[in-house]
Amino acid sequence: MSNAIANVSKLIQDNDIKFVLLKFTDIKGKEHGVSLPVSLVANDLEDLFEEGKMFDGSSVEGWKAINKADMLLMPIAETAVVDPFARIPTLSIRCSIYDPNTMQSYDRDPRSIATRAENYLKSTGIADSVMFGPEPEFFLFDDVRFSTEMNNVSYRIDDVEAAWNTNRKFEEGNKAYRPLKKGGYCAVAPIDTAHDIRSEMCLLMEEMGLVIEAHHHEVATAGQNEIATRFNSLTLKADETQIYKYIVQNVAVEHGKTACFMPKPFAGDNGSGMHCNMSLSKDGKNVFMGDKYAGLSETALYYIGGIIKHAKALNAFTNPTTNSYKRLVPGFEAPVLLAYSASNRSASIRIPAVTSPKATRVEARFPDPMANPYLCFAALLMAGLDGVINKIHPGDAMDKNLYDLPPEELKDIQRLPRL
């Protein structure tokens, strides 16, 4: 028995686990799961990890046809973690998807795609590993309603923090403490009503293996938040992003809130992005560290060039919804132009300021939290590697406020897609 499987056995015993929840992610980034009673698997754990669990692939959108529906969940022992929300003790294990006829990973399984991207990176010799540090933002709403009927299309959201509630009558009185438009960044109580909710989320994330760096209220009114977690390798960080969303959504429900990862749930204020920080390393050295612009290496510049070249194709993975493009408009700290710059938050690619060259990285600012993290991260890596392999230079950096460029300068700069 491997150490990882032995650890699963120990988790089951130490936590009196009753069910094992096998989780997987579909093309859209939605999580699915099937729960097995421990009495069925505890005595044959090795068989579970070697033989997997059959399921109906035709019921997962974008996968198998009904006449070829059988697919296999292959649990990954290293991902086992106790589910903090299950009333009945449950162990959650993430899975890859296999074709039972070939016993090979399924080519549409997002997690397998992420793993293949990492393996391709190693095969190029450019680097041994890629690190991702995504920054998913989210709203916490008190009320969410929508309708898409034959005779009616509408939506309505509300939150006690919302600026539009300044004149609203509440039973307990209107205390007037709320962030106005663009006034919420790093707000504190009583304006920030979600501090303890975020703290609870952070503690649960730590229980499930994430490393927390900070949490704070974000810029927008109506309850925009961010929890910063430490970077990790591509596939593992995608796993952690799914855990992040799972915890945010479930803690929100426990507090009578709805967590919303839509990029632009309402107009007139900042939307929610998922800025993706990236760096490559080889033999323990940061490959992006150098003596070029903003302390970058030539490899890093080529990596940026690849992302800029392929940005409009990348948007299918990094910004997968119609709502995504309502966020990518000027004036709300969201990028609109395909340019790069140091510390410039109006650029689509930013080079963050660092206190140590070892922390050198590039940040793609256009992705949003509706993206499937496995596909988003893999696509960004492959675009960047194409830039390195084919020496695609991104051109000169743009250190101006890109929202204020005159028409004669704008005409030569490509922009991200828009509605």
Automatic annotation (TrEMBL):
Recorded protein name is: Glutamine synthetase
Q: Which residues bind ATP?
A: E213, R345, K358
| Domain of life, source organism | Bacteria
Residues annotated for L-glutamate binding in this entry: N270, G271, R327, E333, R345, R365
| Protein family (similarity comment) | Belongs to the glutamine synthetase family.
**What reaction is this protein's catalytic activity?**
L-glutamate + NH4(+) + ATP = L-glutamine + ADP + phosphate + H(+)
Q: What sort of enzyme, by top EC class, is this?
A: ligase
Question: Mostly located where?
Answer: cytoplasm
Assembly description: Oligomer of 12 subunits arranged in the form of two hexagons.
**What PANTHER family has UniProt attached to this entry?**
GLUTAMINE SYNTHETASE
Q: A single GO CC term, please?
A: cytoplasm
Which stretches make up the GS beta-grasp domain? Answer: 15-102
Q: Where in the cell is it found?
A: Cytoplasm
Binding of Mg(2+) 1, residues: E137, E218, E226, H275, E363
Q: Residues in domain GS catalytic?
A: 110-419
O-AMP-tyrosine occurs at Y403
The UniProt record gives the binding positions of Mg(2+) 2 as E135
